[in-house]
Amino acid sequence: MGAFAAAFLMLVSPLTPRQQSGGRQLCGCLGGRRGYHSVRAASNLAAVRPPRGRLYALKIQLESGSGAAGTSPRAILIPVFLQQPHRRYNALSGDWVLVSPHRAQRPWQGRQEPVAPAALAGYAPDCYLCPGNRRANGEHNPAYSGVYVFDNDFPALLPAADSTMDALPDGLLQAQPVRGECRVICYSAQHNQALATMPLSAIGAVVDVWAQQSAALGERYAWVQIFENKGELMGCSNPHPHGQIWCMDALPNEAAKEDRQQRAYFEAHGSLLLADYAQQEEAQAQRILLANEHWLALVPFWALWPYELLLLPRRPVARLPDLSAPERTALAALLQQVLVRYDNLFDTAFPYSLGWHGAPFGAGAAHWQLHAHIYPPLLRSATVKKFMVGFELLAEAQRDLTAEQAAARLRSLPAEHYTLRSA
Ligand SMILES: [Zn+2]
Ligand SMILES: [Zn+2]
User: Fold this and answer.
1) How far, in Å, from the CA of 319 to the mean position of ligand 1?
2) Is residue 218 one of the residues assigned to a domain?
3) 4, 12, 308, 332: which is deepest, by most CB within 10 A?
4) In a domain, 50, yes or no
């Protein structure tokens, strides 16, 4: 039996008395009837007890030195998981991801030079999002300042229900009608801005519009997907800072998976899956990128994309409109700090897809915790992108860089945007 197999067995074995009280090791429980059990401080090791019933323990050990708060030792994933192939469970989606940290020791191909960004002006005459400009459908944008929302000229969904269209349940051939709307949100009138470089008050205005739009569209649709596709690598050719909203009267696949997982967890444990998860991440600390009074930004344990992030409020919040004013202000600050670090990673305007997942509208929301995902495609330079192809398309998502390595790399970056750094 290889080292990994032994480690895996150790991972899924119930705690033994030795492990419960074991020296420099302690256990963070992943399950149990009463939900999450926080990892205790070293002085409190003897108090760590598994819950009764089924239990699978993740062995972690204490790392000497200071933790994220700078005061206490922190618990870390055991080193074998940072070196050997393993699979991680995404508790939020129910999917698994293959992690292959040993491949990070492959010969280094050399960092490619960043692509020098074209200097952009604050206004572009040929941009269909700039104030006053003509759009593809012939309409002109108003001379807006601040945030501007309009209906997408080429929507993927249409609001009018066609009465001639019924669900098609023809054996294995199933189809159903869908109703929806698509909107565009210009974050700024300035063509050369981005969320990472906008003033905090302007980012706060975007957060407010996200919440307003979500509330308004939620009156008509079950799912309101607010998202931003940034950068040509993500298929977005217009650099004008903007996001989108697509809403529909059905739950899309990702929402349905997360709804199922969060509901099942809530029914089994009486607590929120993502709140318990955040508590466990805070105890381990090693995947946390940033934290403020109201929010956490972390590389999720189950991340697929190299520098994927999850943004989580620190109290139960079902949807964007439920955020308080201080939480919105704190979110603007967190977003800015996160996106500046992204840009600083390869000294480039870092591409990503960012999107919000709040509770579906028109149904109970007690099981759901609001969160944002950020999925960036870049791997090791401004031009080297991760592809989801081959094994990943046909079998399971896979990554080489561990979530812990990604978080450490992001944490090490300066808080000041690279374009503001003195040469
Ligand atoms: Zn523009
Ligand atoms: Zn989600």
Assistant:
1) 30
2) no
3) 332
4) yes
